[in-house]
Amino acid sequence: MGRKSLTGIILSLTLLSSAYGGCPSPQEASVILSRLTRTVVAAVEVKPLPQFNACKVKTESGDTFFISADRRWVIEGILLKIPQVIIKEEDRERLIKRALFKVGRGEPLIVLTNPLCRACSENREKIGELSKRFTLIFVPVGFEGEEFEAAVDAYCRKKSPEEFFKVEKPFKVCDRGKLRVWSSQDILKKYGITATPTFILPDGRALVGIEELLRSLKGEKKSLN
User: Fold this and answer.
1) CA dist., res. 150 & res. 168, Å (int)
2) How far apart, in whole angstroms, are the C-alpha atoms of residue 86 and residue 191?
3) Residue 218 pLDDT
4) Rounded to whole angstroms, how far apart are CA atoms 6 and 59?
5) What domains does the chain contain, in order, with CATH numbers?
6) What is the pLDDT of residue 18?
7) What is the dihedral of CA 143, 145, 149, 151, to 10 degrees?
8) What is the maximum alpha-carbon separation in the chain?
């Protein structure tokens, strides 16, 4: 496809008007897809997908396309929802036994964190607010390099909540700390968890990042109202 043709397609995607909740009409979608594929495509259904800022288009031939809301991109195929990671109860109990410290009252919320985790440090206040609803169970984890050593160091120095993000080098690496971090690694790698902060809710759901956790809790609150 030549540069001139591609430019024309992008301009068309950008300039076409919308009458379907921010999405093109089936007629407009047909024009977009026909120009892109250089074949006659008849769109029969267009649905907005606000969570992806895109529009789902079904064609007469049974194909599915996704057009971005800004009309700049088209994806052919299907979108697959990532399955929710659920940590088994026995594994949650094993992680709780490896807690460095606990804060708050209420149901247990496991916080997988690391002294070198910038997102954890920057969101300390947001995480701290959760202690009004949950017992926050802080488990230091690290999967490689300095993050592993920093997690071990937290156990070896028996850090308090106030000291946790204060990094002292060289790291103190003791056998007790290494065994705790290694055993947590073995549990988490079964579920593909290698990022901090990760939060494990009382029902076993594992959520990566404070924003994902807050969105989930907000959604639960709305469903109860």
Assistant:
1) 9
2) 8
3) 86
4) 22
5) 3-76 (no CATH), 89-224 (3.40.30.10)
6) 39
7) -30
8) 68
- pLDDT by 10-residue block (mean), the chain, 225 residues: 41 43 85 88 92 90 90 84 90 97 96 96 94 97 95 98 96 97 95 93 95 88 56
The DSSP string of 71-114 is: SS-EEES---PPPPPB--HHHHHHHHTT-SEEEESSEEEEEEE-
Asked if 214 and 99 touch (Cβ cutoff 8 Å), the reply is no
Tell me what pLDDT residue 222 has.
Answer: 58
CA 14 – CA 72 distance, rounded (Å): 6
The token duo for 75 is 């994806």
Amino acid letter for position 84: Q
What was the pLDDT predicted at 9? 41
Q: For CA atoms 190, 192, 197, 201, give the dihedral sign.
A: negative
